């Protein structure tokens, strides 16, 4: 269970409003750094939507500077056990393209499972 209070984070209920709240949070943070938020808003929206649809429990969104390269990094945490999978594009489906888009727009991305359950999906943002 995600219970620790984090700095530079927002805690979201898994609802349809979560992606919009995450976009606003990310935009405000990147504005403080005078960084472009266009790709970041798309990326965080996709990651939060995946948590809402496929994850479990509270969704935590963190935005901070990566220690290695200084790029803005967004992490989306949830308590679900399922790890995200990039699927080959199937244009007959109405969903399933989000991680392909994240991979194309981010400098890098990945997933980090938590030992006690849940995961963090992260992306380095190009600004």
Keywords summarizing the entry:
127 residues; five-stranded antiparallel beta sheet; 31% helix; alpha+beta; 3 helices
Number of helices: 3
The residue fraction in helices comes out at 25-40%
Mean pLDDT across the residues is 89
Low-confidence segments, given as residue ranges, are none
Beta-strand portion reads: 15-25%
- Structural class by sheet pairing and helices: alpha+beta
Q: In angstroms, what is the radius of gyration?
A: 14 Å
Tell me the major beta sheet: 5 strands, antiparallel
Gross geometry: globular
Query: Could you give the order of strands across the largest sheet?
Result: 1-2-3-5-4
Number of strands: 5
SSE series: EHHEEHEE
How far apart are the termini? 32 Å
Notes on the protein architecture:
The protein is α+β, with helices and mostly antiparallel strands and 127 residues long. 31% of the residues lie in helices and 24% in strands. It has a five-stranded antiparallel β-sheet with strand order 1-2-3-5-4, with helices on one face. α1 runs antiparallel to α2 and α2 packs antiparallel against α3. The radius of gyration is 14 Å and the shape is globular.
What is the secondary structure topology, with strand pairs?
Layout (H helix, E strand, L loop, with lengths): L8 E4 L5 H15 L5 H17 L4 E7 L6 E7 L19 H8 L2 E6 L5 E6 L3
Antiparallel strand pairs: 1-2, 2-3, 3-5, 4-5
Helix pairs in contact: 1-2, 2-3
Write a concise synopsis of the structure shown:
The chain has 127 residues and is of the alpha+beta class. It is globular.
